[in-house]
Specification:
The complex is a heterodimer of chains A (492) and B (458). Chain A has 492 residues and is an alpha/beta fold. Chain A contains 23 helices and 13 strands. Residues 447-451 of chain B have low confidence and may be disordered. Chain B has 458 residues and is an alpha/beta fold. Classes of the chains: A alpha/beta (492), B alpha/beta (458).
């Protein structure tokens, strides 16, 4: 299928509620909003594809293009691996002017694949196209096919050059790549009625490891977590799972729907942020498995485990709660977090004054509205200047957002916590929720903010504003020295 | 001659892209907005890297090229972007940096920009537009930085009829930090001279808290200062990559220049101080003589820790030269020297055998070294080899305060000696006696049955 057809496909997503509501012609147009030159922000399709696929740990990720695409962006996320660290290594063909002019791109790519296989012997190589290689017409699919045959292992073309669209489109093209080239290529011989996949879970800072033991305790087998801490062969055999849970909805919805269509795997959408959502997610997984034929006793085991874990979590939250109750939060993340984080924060007694619904689906928006009751609390996009004003005027006690907007809060001398991809602390599951509250406590009650907000003891011209707080004896010697009489020096 | 083998694969790139280097230089200009002419991802990646390094809001925009505009030509997107930036951010300078995407298609950017400036003169008003052609498929940060400074001089600097005997132009290299530039400025001012530093990141990226929200850079070299560079009495260019802008300035305004390849190390700092004393006709101030003496003492205290140490360095050409020379002057060996790009003549002068390569090469060759020297991406090699990493250059995203660390002049070199020595001391191995000399071994045979302590192993 041509890239153009696959892009049209990615946009025409029957499982997407926004898409369903459109007219036939509007659907054909796709959902990429034209970007405004000189007033755009955000990643490209290549960025999106790489975000989804790069946490696959034992695969070599090779970026075919000039330097910037990989050189400016590698090793920038904190997904965690329990095995190989090959995914953190950066591989690029680093195309030069000569390569482009002479048309050496495809040859160079083939050699690069060979070098990687000789040096690192990965189970598979993912090859990413970029704007320049798409423009000069390098046929990466053909090179990958040939290399795959030659070296006897999968070499997967990820055709999502940056200029075709946004990060979100890239997420979906990556999902499509897994459907087209990876999932279903290996038949597992160890299928059980308890096999599930988690889609759209990145295992940032190892946070999924707070959840995994709980599922395993229930006897649930994780066939594949895509992409967090995933191995290539697990993903290749993921089509034999009995149920899918989708964590980050807009990113991999086409993957969930595709797996349902092709292999009849039902899916549901859930979140591991917050106590209630984690419990709902565990129940959701067990419910789907039972529907698919697992013994119904699984549900009872799940209830018992949830009751136990919730009790532990609330016990650990109790001492934190008095420090957090009533704190006002500005939530500036969007997507699925527009509601999943709201629920979690309200559980701890905090008040979410506004939440961003950028990049949220219609369903996300409805859930956010349900949590916050009033449309006024939802916003699509706030200008940095407006966020700055809100924070300077003290409308919120803390902002939770991604690193892109952190300095708006910090420069407004307001506590801030990273809750997006680049963060350094795990927040998933019961354990993660306690960690999140601890981090909010540390931020919102940090002693540096009152110190920072204390004005300097002088005015704009540097003139002292009030009589400085100086002990009498110091003031006394000041006066003495001011007179500048030499013999007074003996006194000190 | 640097070794530059033909290779198909770059493992763990050492380079950052050329447009990033150009945008970096524009960030050292007051009221500037760098504009990357390419797809939005080109800008997003550069932006994220800048933010991770400086931990500041970074103004930078994109022409948001898509598939269609790439095929049909990007002049419309360029024009729209310039006008949008002009209305929204009202900058004094828009610095266009072309990327590999638009350069691969190939357009006459200079003509396009000239025609946009012409047609839109009214809307643009006093906002200046400068073009740096910086495709990613060539060069790295140093080349991009140099190209941006050259293009600003060519577009803005005017010949002058008078020369101010107290004004000195300083063309600062890309690896100078905020701290280096502050030190340099104070040093020049101590001679009663007025330095005009281009680019000047020391007042735009030094991490302060303004009392309102500002969307473009604040601080930096002013456009007026760039226009009047020709009125200075001399130009000092630091680093080989600043030769191109220095030549351009000399061509345009007749201003003579002196190129100093580095300001790190006693001899290098002496050269600058001598030059300043000559230019100003004043004696070297006591405070500077004091700093020199402090450096001498630091060299004495430090040399014990440098002697015979094996240092593996991977950096951009001028920074590589600076660091390799520094280590050589302190008595260390540099068995591994990796340069990001092949073209700089300074590579001939590096006191080590230079290879052009990436951090994969550093990792392969650095086995047995005492210290790795590179930017933060060297951390993977450091983890796997178990050799400490001393972070220099750009990006440094996993340590705080990179912009305030110094390596230039007497005080910078002094700081550098202490920092490196402390890193080496922190990882020093305690001596372990060979087993035959262990006095506690098998003691229980003669005395009681207490188990003997395990010998220390490292």
């Amino acid at each position: 299928m041509s890239l153009k057809a696959r892009i049209a496909n990615a946009f025409d997503e029957p499982a997407c509620p926004t898409n369903r509501e459109k007219s036939e012609t509007a659907r054909k147009k796709g959902c990429s909003k034209p970007l405004t030159p000189g007033a755009a922000a955000g990643g490209c399709a290549f960025d999106g594809a790489k975000i989804v696929l790069q946490p696959v740990t034992d695969v070599a990720h090779l970026i075919h293009g000039p330097l910037a695409c990989e050189g400016n962006s590698w090793d920038n996320r904190h997904a965690a691996s329990s095995g190989s660290d090959l995914w953190r290594k950066s591989f690029t063909t680093d195309l030069t002017e000569l390569d482009i002019v002479m048309g050496n791109g495809e040859k160079k790519l083939f050699k690069a694949i060979r070098t990687i296989i000789e040096r690192h012997d990965p189970p598979a190589v993912f090859v990413y196209s970029t704007c320049v290689t798409a423009l000069i017409g390098d046929d990466i699919a053909a090179v990958c096919k040939r290399a795959g045959e030659r070296f006897g292992r999968p070499v997967v073309p990820v055709d999502a050059p940056g200029f075709v669209g946004s990060k979100n489109l890239g997420n979906r093209l990556a999902g499509q790549t897994l459907l087209d080239h990876v999932i279903g290529t290996i038949e597992p011989d160890d299928v059980t009625p308890y096999d599930v996949n988690i889609l759209g879970e990145y295992n940032l800072v190892g946070e999924f490891w707070f959840v995994k033991p709980l599922l395993e305790e229930l006897g649930i087998r994780l066939r594949a977590v895509i992409p967090g801490d995933a191995r290539y062969r697990d993903i290749a055999a993921a089509h034999r799972a009995k149920a899918n849970m989708m964590v980050c909805s807009s990113a991999l919805i086409n993957l969930a729907r595709g797996m349902q269509e092709r292999w009849g795997i039902p899916y549901f959408e859930g979140s591991f942020y917050g106590i209630a959502d984690t419990s709902a997610a565990i129940r959701g997984i067990c419910g789907l498995l039972v529907e698919q034929g697992a013994p119904a006793a699984l549900l009872d085991r799940a209830d018992a485990l949830i009751a136990r874990e919730e009790a532990i979590a609330w016990r650990r939250v109790a001492p934190l709660k008095p420090r957090l109750v009533g704190k006002r939060v500005l939530l500036n993340t969007g997507g699925v977090k527009s509601w999943s984080m709201v629920d979690a924060l309200q559980e701890a007694g905090m008040e979410v004054i506004r939440t961003s619904i950028k990049k949220s689906t219609e369903e996300d928006k409805a859930r956010a509205l349900a949590a916050l009751k009033n449309e006024k609390h939802l916003f699509d996009r706030l200008a940095p200047r407006e966020i700055y004003r809100m924070l300077v005027e003290g409308e919120a006690d803390i902002m939770l957002s991604g690193s892109r907007t952190q300095f708006i809060a910090l420069k407004a001398k307001t506590p801030w916590l990273d809750v997006n991809q680049e963060r350094h602390h795990p927040y998933a599951g019961y354990e993660g929720f306690v960690e999140l509250l601890k981090r909010i406590d540390l931020a919102v009650n940090s002693p540096v903010f009152p110190a920072l907000r204390t004005p300097a003891p002088w005015d704009e011209a540097g003139e002292l504003m009030a009589q400085p707080d100086i002990p009498d004896e110091v003031a006394h010697s000041f006066r003495k020295f001011a007179r500048g009489v030499l013999e007074d020096a003996d006194d000190c | 001659m640097p070794v530059n083998e033909v290779r198909s694969l770059s493992t763990n790139p050492l380079k950052s892209s050329q447009p990033l280097g150009a945008a970096y230089a524009f960030l050292g200009i007051e009221g500037a907005m760098p504009l990357l002419h390419g797809s939005q991802g080109c800008t997003a990646f550069a932006l994220v890297l800048f933010v991770r390094h400086f931990k500041e809001t970074i103004p930078i925009q994109t022409t948001a090229m898509n598939e269609v505009s790439t095929v049909l030509g990007g002049a419309d997107h360029l024009e729209e972007a310039i006008l949008n930036i002009r209305t929204r951010a009202n900058p004094q300078l828009i610095g266009i940096c072309t990327t590999a995407l638009v350069e691969t298609r190939g357009e006459d950017f200079a003509a396009d920009v000239a025609s946009i400036i012409n047609r839109r003169a009214e809307t643009l008003g006093d906002c200046r537009v400068v073009l740096a052609e910086t495709p990613d498929f060539r060069g790295s940060i140093e080349e991009g930085w140099s190209a941006a400074v050259t293009s600003m001089i060519e577009a803005l600097s005017q010949p002058s009829t008078r020369r101010d005997p107290e004004r000195i132009v300083i063309l600062a290299p890309s690896h100078f930090t905020v701290g280096d530039i502050e030190t340099l400025r104070q040093t020049v001012e101590a001679f009663g001279l007025v330095p005009v530093i281009l680019p000047d990141i020391s007042s735009s990226l030094d991490g302060t808290i303004p009392d309102r929200w500002i969307p473009s850079t604040y601080g930096g070299t002013s456009v007026a200062d760039i226009e009047s560079l020709g009125a200075a009495c001399h130009c000092i260019a630091i680093g080989e990559h600043m030769r191109r802008p220095a030549k351009a300035l000399s061509r345009k305004t007749g201003l003579a220049y002196t190129l100093l390849p580095t300001l790190t190390g006693l001899a290098a700092a002496d050269r600058l101080i001598t030059l300043l004393a000559r230019l100003s006709g004043r004696p070297v101030p006591a405070s500077i003589r004091r700093r020199r003496s402090q450096l001498q003492d630091a060299m004495l205290d430090g040399h014990f820790h440098f002697g015979g140490r094996r240092i593996a360095i991977a950096a951009e050409p001028d920074l590589l030269y600076q660091m390799a020379s520094f280590f050589a002057e302190m008595g260390a060996e540099v068995p591994v020297a990796i340069a990001s790009t092949p073209d700089s003549p300074i590579l001939e002068a590096v006191p080590a055998e230079v290879t052009v390569g990436d951090l994969g090469d550093l990792e392969e060759r650095a086995m047995g070294a005492d210290l790795l020297v590179s930017h933060a991406h060297g951390r993977q090699a450091s983890e796997r080899l178990g050799i400490p990493l001393f972070r220099v250059g750009f990006p440094i995203f996993d340590r705080l305060g990179a912009q305030h660390r110094r390596s230039a002049l007497y005080e910078g070199t002094r700081d550098l000696i202490f920092e490196v020595a402390n890193t080496l001391i922190a990882t020093d191995h305690h001596p372990v006696p060979p087993e035959s000399l262990d006095p506690l071994r098998n003691r229980e045979m003669f005395h009681d049955s207490r188990p003997s302590p395990e010998p220390r192993r490292h």
